[in-house]
Fold this protein.
Amino acid sequence: MVRLGMNDKTEKDSHTLTLPKSVDQHSAPIKVLTITTLYPNAAQPSHGIFVENRLRNLAETGEVLLRVVAPVPWFPWKSKCFGRYGTFAKAPSAEVRYGIPITHPRYFLIPKIGMTVAPVSLRATILRHVRSLIAAGSNFDLIDAHFFYPDGIAAAWLAQRLGLPVVITARGTDLNDYVSRYPAVGRAIRLTAERADGLIVVCNALKDVLVKLGIPPERVQVLRNGVDLQLFTPMARDTARAILGITRPTLLSVGHLIERKGHDIAIAALMTLPGFDLLIVGDGPDRSKLAALAHNLGMADRVRFLGHVSHADLPGIYSAADALILPSSREGWANVLLESMACGTPVVASAVWGTPEIVCTPAAGVLVHDRTSAGFATAIKQLFAKPPDRSATRAYAEMFSWESTSLGQIRVFRSAIANAQRRHDRRE
């Protein structure tokens, strides 16, 4: 087990990752401690599910032994009356999902101004908690953090205290939003990235952000998300449509009901798409606002809100729809795009961040550069004028299995550990 400290004055090339061509199947499994505030729990089964999907596929390789510490904000009352904080309060202190042990220690977060103090509060909580895990007999080779701020900042500090290498994965808004809007956060991210033993991003657009901050490009590994091709598979289309009562061309919008997901654009696009209906999957604070918009535009009878839908039930909805609409203003790597394609359903999506890296062939769908209702209506008409064969859409999605991503993570982990060991040996 590696127990090394981080040195601010380490040689420039000491963090450069030299990835082996293949994973050494004879090496002992890596004991990985994952730190993330984005992770599902019994009270929030979809919260950060994209992190869980990556980790459970990684665990299936047998090359790692995972333990997840997923802190949640402390809140005294378990009630829906208090919104997401009341839901966080319902999270269990510990659970096991897909064979991975998870704990949910509480950290103090002040609503609205919590972003500034979150790294400090988070690191105090995880230090106490991880020390208790070590005292109980756990040991770790490496810390794996998901989401750069505040998770990665706190995890890097913890790694330094414990003498462990740290790998940080950036996923989207942690770079494409925070860096541009909050200069102090951008500086903290840059300093942490400089000291990390491994850096992973889910698309090239996020790599560009780190490079602009001064991080050498060779230090940043792009490992895109995959899709569960066994779960997300085409269902009998007529059956899927009958279950949902679909009889007309139907569009689908999936995601948290918040402004940046652009559900309002999807609703407004119907005004110039007579004969089309829209299904919206997801929950969130904008539910009533979106329902009011549909009513005010005279679209209430053509828009149906399905609320939260479990992952297991999504394939039927994707299979029933004629196209997925994703009018987001910001996306790192939108998993719903691949999920839809894996079910044979093409997409119409705004050309932001990592999305052009996913929608890059007619079989996938159409990119929209004009993020307006008119722009999306035009793109939808374009797609329906010459729709791709659904089997071709599925075949394209099959290129995005999890195998290469998981092997890439393992290479980054082993390289980070080896480089940390070399630094230690030089100091001896």
Notes: The first helix runs from residue 49 to 59.
